[in-house]
User: Fold this.
Amino acid sequence: MSTKEVTELQRRILDFIAQCVEEKGFPPSIREIGRRLRITSPSSVAYHLRVLESAGLLKRTDAISRGMSLASSPNELPILGAVAAGSGVIAAEDVEGHVTLDRDARRGADYLLRVKGDSMVGAGILEGDLVQVRRQDDARDGEIVVALVGEEGVVKRLRRKAGQAALESENPAYEPIRGPFQVAGKVVGLLRRY
Amino acid sequence: MSTKEVTELQRRILDFIAQCVEEKGFPPSIREIGRRLRITSPSSVAYHLRVLESAGLLKRTDAISRGMSLASSPNELPILGAVAAGSGVIAAEDVEGHVTLDRDARRGADYLLRVKGDSMVGAGILEGDLVQVRRQDDARDGEIVVALVGEEGVVKRLRRKAGQAALESENPAYEPIRGPFQVAGKVVGLLRRY
DNA sequence: TTCTTTAGTGGACATAAGTCCAATTGTAGT
DNA sequence: ACTACAATTGGACTTATGTCCACTAAAGAA
Assistant:
């Protein structure tokens, strides 16, 4: 299983399957996929499904109708223990698990980050909480963000005053961070487990 | 349709469908259901599916293979705006919506309750947060519970000292409640949307 | 009893659906 | 030009699958 590259068309097939499962509750047949994506021959669709399967994006049960399912639910979010300084990419080693939220609850988040420390208690964010993070390079004044300070990922409130950006804690014990940092994402939600 | 009673066998069919969707990613065929539940004739299974559909427990798309899906996901939690004093039963009028969580994230919760007021800010529970509540009559010292005080449902920390039970707020502005109250559930998690 | 409802059987049937195969096309590399 | 490969076609084939129909059996109700 070579985790090959996948073409645009194959990605659209994947999307269509996801859409069917979401809307109708079951996957499409090979011919339904073909009809939707203007592929006239079932063999051609089957070919793409084989590619998707060998790329690890699709699970298939051979020879039975609609015998396919997405390898990863589009609503499944990885739980990260920390944000790597390498930004963008998520290191698989840091993934503690997964949580599936429906589209509404997901709020466009890309991952969950486990909060370390008590610097945001004033905003109701406690140690151990999972914050839902949407990846983005920048954010507006007052928004709670995940930022990279050196190698470390932190959850703070972003302040923009007179062109100056700072990261404020919601805990009087901590000083604002004015040093260089990079916004990695915006906090769009929070999950806590008692 | 009459939302009829459903037999034990029909409930087991429903469970089997749920299990298939969970494990394999797609619903079973009529004959697969029959094989599992020792029903030798496909027509008989089809009969039960019709009953389940008219009971509103199953959605069906006629004449296509595996064309069925559960009407309500077993992992779907209703969002309540308030807990009714009538306890036990959930009034449909109070349901603001639904959120689907996977079994792990669900934590045995029965419903979500929207938090009113700031009496629990000290515990990181803010106004507007959704707390995951598992229904139960009692709880241990120190646990955060949903309790009925008169007609009103409140989220507080339960204190048991020397046989005396009280409801404490996590906000110095509020006094503990010692008057009569009834525990309705235990808070097992929290969701917040920014 | 008789009638009705619910539950189930078994077979026939049309078609929906996955698979196999030979052949074609276009693109990129040698 | 030749080769290799990815993408696609169309048809044939087999089986899986949902549905229809006639019939049976048990349990209640009238």
Observations:
- Residues 7, 9, 39-44, 47-48, 51, 63-65 of chain A lie near DNA strand D (CB under 10 Å from a C1').
- Chain A touches chain B at residues 21, 24-27, 29, 59, 61, 64-70, 97-102, 104-105, 107, 121, 124-126, 129, 143-144, 187-194 (CB under 8 Å).
